[in-house]
Amino acid sequence: MIREFKLRGFKMFAEASFEMAPLTILAGMNGAGKTSVIHALLLLKESVRRGDNIVPLNGPFGLELGSFEDIQNWNTQDSVRFDLTDDNDAVYSWELTGVASSLYAEIQEPGELPMLFIEGERVFQYLCAERYGPRNILGSAALPPDLLEVGFRGEYSAQILYSLDSLSIAEPRRCPGFGEEDAALLKFETERWLSRITRPVQIDTDSISIRTVTALRFRVPDGEWVRPPNMGFGVTYALPVILAGLTAGNGGLLIVENPEAHLHPAGQSQMGYFLAAMASAGVQVVVETHSDHVLNGIRRAIGEHSILTKDQAIIHFFDVDGTDPQTLRFTETGSIASWPRGFFDQYQLDVSALTRVRRPRQ
């Protein structure tokens, strides 16, 4: 597990350090640096995957970072550096250099790599904000079942369900309320979580032709099967998040951008609970969110359901006032120890403004 992640000379960060927990929440204003933290992790993963000391700045994971001068902090001419500390206090360092106009960076890796970045059974998964919406068919990866992932846009969700439908799900990751007779298999646990987050729903998949594509369809209980466009965006956007969490390797890392996309407020809260449940079950989760409902679902998971302790989740709040990101901590009851101005306070501001409008003028 990553315990601390430092960025030096990368994009807007001359130097910044981020404490990380089983569940790390990145929140705050647009364009304040949240996604840059995720980009740094993705570059490290891609450099390890290639193994040739070169990391492209455009293409992998859908990145479009431009040239080396675009990722180098404008206040320094030093090389870009990332330092990662794991929960055993081992420190790993990467240094990125390059010509200003280069579309790639040359990277010097540590002599030994953390297990998190070594290829394995779904130990590093990333879901971007721009996931696939409702599609009748999805692609299939040319990989054996034990190496399949949902893809950074959720493009292999149907194949994961088709190939791993009978994968056994450990009890800590199972949806609450399951009965003794309920099968602890991927397909059924996915349906239960998806029903909790969106609406009661069942899923069916079918491999087409030579298995280069996989079809997906849904139905409400006792209803007719319908194609994804007739089910809507919320279900198809939430599906890969659930699949990634349920199939992630123990000790793996799951990064999710905007898990709240296209979900009803109640579903957003349940999504927060789901991510907290996965973090409590041995998956390190990094989530970027703009949803107070997702945050409140996590708060309830800590304070009401006690599936995470207050120290197993942490928030980094990014503002645009030029200050460093603030580290916020939870209390045992799920509250935020210090609530800064601008941190998910828009509801209170709007209600106060409406109250003043309604107040009778003296």
Q: Nearest-angstrom radius of gyration?
A: 21 Å
Mean of all residue-level pLDDT scores: 92
Structural class: alpha/beta
The N- to C-terminal Cα distance equals 60 Å
Main sheet overview: 6 strands, antiparallel
Tell me the series of helices and strands, N- to C-terminal: EEEHEHEEEEEHHEEHEHEHEEH
Principal-axes shape call: globular
List keywords for this structure.
single chain; 362 residues; alpha/beta; Rossmann fold; 2 domains; six-stranded antiparallel β-sheet; six-stranded mixed β-sheet; 8 helices; 15 strands; globular; Bact_Antivir_Def_Nuclease; Rad50/SbcC_AAA
How would you describe the overall organization of this protein?
InterPro entries: ATPase_AAA_core (IPR003959), Bact_Antivir_Def_Nuclease (IPR051396), DUF3696 (IPR022532), P-loop_NTPase (IPR027417), P-loop_UCP034888 (IPR014592), Rad50/SbcC_AAA (IPR038729). Residues 6-101 form the Rad50/SbcC-type AAA domain. This is DUF3696 domain-containing protein. The chain has 362 residues and is α/β, with parallel strands linked by helices. It has 2 domains: 1-123 and 248-362, Rossmann fold, CATH 3.40.50; 131-246, no CATH class. Helix content is 27%, strand content 23%. It has 8 helices and 15 strands. The strands form 3 sheets. Strands 2-1-5-6-7-4 form a 6-stranded antiparallel sheet, covered by helices on one side. Strands 8-12-13-3-14-15 form a 6-stranded mixed sheet, with helices on both faces. Helix 6 packs across helix 7 (292-303). The radius of gyration is 21 Å and the shape is globular. The termini are far apart.
